[in-house]
Amino acid sequence: MQITLNGAALEIAPGTTIAQLIHRIAGETGRDPRSVAVERNLEIVPKSEHAMTVLTEGDRLEIVQFVGGG
């Protein structure tokens, strides 16, 4: 199944949740999965819904990392 993640096509398994995708990306990039925000099809997905939100063919996601500093 194909989705678009941050503007790039990505192949994922059917039934993949947002939480699973975040953990996959964290493993590949070393990002902290606790400090990300997710937009799915132009709507913010609350962190409390990541584990139960199943992705579907053609979904468009933007995942951004929070960065602290001062």
UniProtKB/TrEMBL annotation:
InterPro entries: Beta-grasp_dom_sf, Mopterin_synth/thiamin_S_b, Thi_S, ThiS/MoaD-like
Listed CDD domains: Ubl_ThiS
Protein name as it appears in the record: Thiamine biosynthesis protein ThiS
Pfam family, one: ThiS
SUPFAM superfamilies xrefs: MoaD/ThiS
Domain of life: Bacteria
Organism of provenance: Hyphomonas hirschiana VP5
